[in-house]
TrEMBL record:
Name of this protein: ABC transporter domain-containing protein
Species assigned in the record: Meloidogyne floridensis
ABC transporter domain location: 71-171
Family under the similarity heading: Belongs to the ABC transporter superfamily. ABCG family. Eye pigment precursor importer (TC 3.A.1.204) subfamily.
Species classification: Eukaryota, Metazoa, Ecdysozoa, Nematoda, Chromadorea
Location(s) in or outside the cell: Membrane
Length: 174
């Protein structure tokens, strides 16, 4: 794994940790209906904008009426210039994590923990400076994860040959 590539993987049931430059960071656990694996991959990308990072600490998201824990003690960070992919089965908590990071669509949920931008809490102000494209608007259901990554690589790795693109996608998936 290269220094610029990080992989979040499932270990011992639902416990997930990120491997970053061979130093593990505890990422808590995601509660999901079928306990399928969740992968979190980050790819460094050159950036000329001022450095910005978002970090989240000990997020616990619950549905108050049912008592269901959607996210349990999840922490992490995304740095400026990184392309982040959050993958997992339906119900794993991917959308809930993104909505929590952006302080959106949390009406019927209780949220504990902190979300920081450059080390400071922004609360609902984060919606004025950030966003994401949801799955339904971005992906075609007939494509595999590999095919989606190849499409994104073609868009982002301008000047790369098809062979280089496929090699890079294979490295990310390994």
């Amino acid at each position: 794994m290269s220094e610029s590539q990080h992989l979040l993987k499932q270990q011992q049931g639902d416990n997930i940790e990120i491997i970053e430059e061979q130093q593990p960071i505890n990422y808590g656990s995601l509660h999901q209906q079928q306990h399928s694996s969740v992968k979190f991959k980050i790819e460094e990308k050159e950036n000329t904008l001022p450095s910005v990072f978002i970090s989240w600490h000990n997020l616990i998201i619950k549905h108050p009426k049912s008592g269901r824990i959607i996210l349990d003690n999840v922490s992490g960070m995304a740095k400026s210039g990184q392309l982040v992919a959050l993958m997992g089965a339906s119900g794993a908590g991917k959308t809930t994590l993104l909505n929590t990071l952006l302080s959106r669509n949390l009406t019927n949920l209780t949220v504990q923990g902190k979300v920081l931008v450059n080390g400071e809490e922004m609360g609902k102000q984060i919606t004025f400076v950030s966003g994401y494209v949801q799955q339904d608007e971005l992906f075609m259901g007939t494509l595999t994860v590999k095919e989606h990554l190849i499409i994104q690589a073609r868009l982002r790795l301008v000047g790369s040959t098809e062979r280089q693109i496929k090699k890079r996608v294979s490295e990310i998936l390994d």
